[in-house]
Amino acid sequence: MKNPFDSMSARSIRGVYTLLMLVVLAVVMVNFVDVMFLKTIGNDQCAWRPIDGSGSRLLVTDVVPGGVSDKAGVKNGDILLAVNGTPFKTSQEAQQRINAVTPGNYATYVIQRGDQTFETKVEILRVVNMPYLSQFLLGFGFLMVGYVVVMSRPQGKIQRRFARYSLIMMLFFGLSTINVDPAVDSPWKLLVLAGGFFAAHFFAPSVFTRMFFHFPVHIAGLDKRWVGAALYVIGALVCLPFVPFLGGGAQAPVLLIRSAIFISYTFYFVGLAIFIYSYFKRIDKNRQKQLRPILIGIGIGWIAFTYSLVIAAWDPFVLFLKPVLLLPGILIPVVPIFFGYSIFRYRLMDIDLVIRRSLLYSIVTAVIATLYVVIVYGVGNFIAYAFGTEENSAVNLVALAAIAFTFDPLKQRIQRGIDLFFYRERQNYQKALLDFSR
User: Rounded CA gap, 355 and 332, in Å?
Assistant: First the structure.
């Protein structure tokens, strides 16, 4: 079957991928604003564990010393019966109740302690969803690198394949956490997020793996039609458990949903494993030097991802009780950084890097600005959590001023780095002319 892109002009292909990038970014940003700002997770600095499989009575454990629950008189071994005067059926329902509380305000807990039942007011804090933030930045980094690659050589097949990989990376990891409620959210939001979610999980098995059938070398034995068809079938099967929930119906069994998510993530790592195999088995020593930064980035990202999974499995409440332990997960987004370094530094993927500085500078500025907003929000909330600040507006202003002070120097330093790595020959030529004129 002929690829329609083969008959399109470079300008048309650039237009198509620009439109796709903007659409994917818009869909993900709707979810990002929801998760990080509008529907942040409420935190009472203790853990709830269902009693005898029933979610209507929750055993309180792991109360953080000096935390908001501790200050409210809640102790380990207490039983939570109701939030704001209303009983709940599941721990998820109880969590939704405190999520609805404005940060810094109080929720009324009905507590049973032995034979006594009493009420107490607990201040509700907010947590920064570090696992989601790390994955969002992972996808965002690939989206930026993939866009530059396809803009530099839009008629190249491997460049377009990498651009598709980057689009699915952004969609998949940018929608790795979705907070949707059919009873509250508008139909258009549900449609947009559900469409993006299904597209990401349907294409993920194929795109995550087949990218590395062609890069860094072509592996003919793997690139068979039946392999591609099988990967799409797997993608369709992965989507099935989510249809009832996103459609407003009953939720599929938790084990089935977790298995589907695990399968999707597995193909991301399978793709990286294929790259590692090609690096050691199919690449000569001279070219390994060019690909070594990618290998290092994969290693760092893999370790950070594994660490985050182990920590979450070791303590499911770590996000609420010890969020500082999740900070190493912020290293996950280094993978696209190292990909971009190798691709642009060593002219991989046959890129004719006649990219204007203004384009690279604009992309760098966009990335830094995004990180800037994220860090201001994250630092402010983290400091507020660490020091128990009830109102973190002043803390956010301090973080804003501190980070703003470093914004421009950081941007200039990165721009000098771009000139050094990407335009070294031009700089040397200009320097030689300057020395000659003297």
Answer: 27
